[in-house]
Amino acid sequence: MRLAFMGSPDFSVPALRALVEAGHEVAAVYCQPPRPAGRGQRETPCPVHRAALEMGIEVRTPARVRRDAAEHEAFRALNLDAAVVAAYGLILPLPMLESPRHGCLNIHASLLPRWRGAAPIQAAILHGDAESGVTIMRMEEGLDTGPMLLREAVALPPRAATPWLHDTLSEMGARLILRALETLPEAVQQPEEGVTYAAKLTKADGALDWREPAESLDRRVRAMNPWPGAFFLHGGEVFRVLEAEPAPGDAAPGTILPGAALTVACGTGALRLLRLQRAGRSAMSAEALLRGFDFGPCLDTPC
Asked: Which domains are present in the chain?
């Protein structure tokens, strides 16, 4: 098929590679424009942009497409059989959605209608879901409301974290989109029950509130890895929590429990902090941190 591919982050790269390796003609790749990154704040292309250049595919990076008639016409002129969309980052208007003969097919990292929206992978872990998966859907103007072509689930291990689920669903999506394009299965409308939304993450989503149950905070640490990262404030300093686990304990939230490990009492139970990172410093084990830093009897919260 003659396709356009629309995606930006690492999650989308396996699907692009799979389409090319399967012999599909990718006429153009659309992705987010280069952004300042790193210490020098150099303009840096996104992962999909870099992958497309390596494969010799034309890359288009419009800053916006919703009301740009010239972009709509340029997209229509590609004469596409379908467009494959995977975490593109821009909302496609109706003229673009209707241009390809078989529509725009989205690789969505959830079992729709659960976790429509921008952060379905993190939401599944944060809320303790038993399973996640990928849905291939035909896009329409609503937010992830389009009819479904294919769906595949994966069980979440008890200690699943975002990096594992991200990579698992990325490879699953690449495999499913090939099957969808090969078989063009009949689309099925999403059920009206069970709709949930996963809003775009902000840095504030990583904040740890010791008044919450330890199990909830443990899930937050695993869900927010690597971005925005779980963290707490102490003495005006930010401490990132890279790894933690629930532990027994009963004290006022924020109390540091006695013992060699750095274990913090929560609303119920306690959270043992295993690896941390201070601002501007390297990550280290809690044991190594405690050799040179004294948190006192409790963290910066009433205790």
From this structure: 2-197 (3.40.50.170), 203-290 (3.10.25.10)
